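#lab-general

N.A. 3:47 PM
ok so I finally got the sequence cleaned up, no stray characters, all 128 residues accounted for. can someone with queue access submit it? mine expired

B.Y. 3:52 PM
send it over

N.A. 3:53 PM
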Amino acid sequence: MIKKGRRRALLISAAIGIVGVCLTLIPIKFNEVLTLERPVWYTLIVGRLLYGLAVGITAIATPRLMEETVPASWVGAFGAAYCFSMAVAVMTGDLLASILPPDDDTKALQETGLTPVVFGMPLLMYAI
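B.Y. 4:20 PM
back already:
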């Protein structure tokens, strides 16, 4: 029963994360800069909060599910792989952020159109 509960928690977490990412993308239109003067900025905040909740649930439920389903002799290797995948995710986020122009250069942010790519990347990770 508990194993199904953790799997269910991961599925619910994925659903919450997808909703959060989609909410994050609502205020962003291509070639526009997100500013607080726009009336839909709150969807960005709510979306990021939901996505953060989903990541937190995943970070807790995944290792617990691994401990219960992976053979004892493989738990260490799977735990290391899980930690490595989290590090790769952080590095991917940092690399994506590094291609964006500085925040104070609004004209360059408008011209690149990369903001939706950076905010939408978690959808690709959920699809994988």
